[in-house]
Amino acid sequence: ETLEIEGESGMQSMAPLSNLKSLRRLDVRRCSIRCHGLQDLACLQSLTVKECGNFFLRPIEAAHTIITDVSHISMTELTNLKSLRRLDVRRCSFTCHGLQDLSCLQYLTVYNCGNFFPWHTEAAHTIKLFPASLETLEIEGESGMQSMAPLSNLKSLRRLDVRRCSIRCHGLQDLACLQSLTVKECGNFFLQPIEAAHTIINPLPSSLEELEIDGESTMESMALLSNLTCLTDLVLVNSENLTVDGFNPPITVNLNSLKMYNRGNCLSRSISADLFSELVVARTNLLSPADNCQLRELTVDCISAVLVAPICSLLAATLHTLEFWYDHRAESFTEEEERALQLLTSLRFINFMDCPNLLCLPQGLHSLPSLKTLFVQDCPKIQSLHKGDFPTSLECLLVQGCSPGLQEQAKQLKGTKPDFNVILELE
Predict the structure, then answer these.
(1) In terms of CB atoms within 10 Å, which of 66, 175, 263, 372 comes out highest?
(2) Phi, psi of 6 (to 5 degrees)
(3) May I ask the CATH architecture of the domain 304-427?
(4) pLDDT digit string (tens) for 36-73?
């Protein structure tokens, strides 16, 4: 059922495999083999070809094909793959001509192919690059496609992931069924064409439920997200120029998970405090009592932005995971912050990660009745850790990248009770 061949020069074609009527998965790498005879493997479901040079793919019935480090092939040679549902193309020099003929294709990954989509923006409006059946599209390291216009015919597209591409968001608002969007390190993704800059206020489709944006300096205002009232998961990372201008509170009504932090060169600023201040005002003056906060998971880079009474009161009923990452400003906890923390009675998991100036943990951790897991990672100035500071509900403690003294104290807590697990390093 499964055959893997690597570094083999003896077998020149697939003919010797013709009797393998049950073969479902074939993986060939760094071989001189060619595809002649492959079409006879009628049950083949998964095919991987890597660094095989002259491997010319012929008609087969594979449902999942991976093509890596191949130059002597064109997309037109795949057009007879009538049942192909998933295609991964990685580090290949050919283009997407013929891709639109794969009428059953649902999942497409294009990784580091350079000019897989070799069309200028002007021509993209009249060319259909993709089959209308596509549901998931992942593109990384692609410079050819400049806008989202070539996706306009993808009425079934539900998930889009673009990373390290020169692509911009223009045309994305037309994807009415899109539910999940990830954008990482695309630089100018939110830069609009001059003719559209004043007419397209909301560049993203209102159907989005999951949105992750990482490293986009052209995202300057929360107004860009103002129509996304269906969001359940929102991740905003290293949006160094982002402000709360135009923030629309209803986009938070359905949120289950919010991650908003800066790291690396963007550590100097955080909009968490501004955003939560706006949210408190909105909850008081704008949103109806029926719009209860549903947030269950929260990750931010500013401890003081969250540990205030109005915010913790808002989150008390539902929040079970709270993570403070990359807060290089916090040193200790004020009395107000300690009191606010006590309001989070549903909290089950709390994590302090890369808070290099934090001198201590909150004294009130022992009063959190639902807390089961505590992580302390890369907080070198925290020196003290005592089991008496923890609630009886605590089941797991992880200490990693901290001072030797803290590591030793954590080690001594091992075995103090049967259901208490201490982890000193992540496996």
Answers:
(1) 175
(2) -140, 135
(3) Alpha-Beta Horseshoe (3.80)
(4) 667 677 777 777 777 776 665 444 455 666 666 655 55
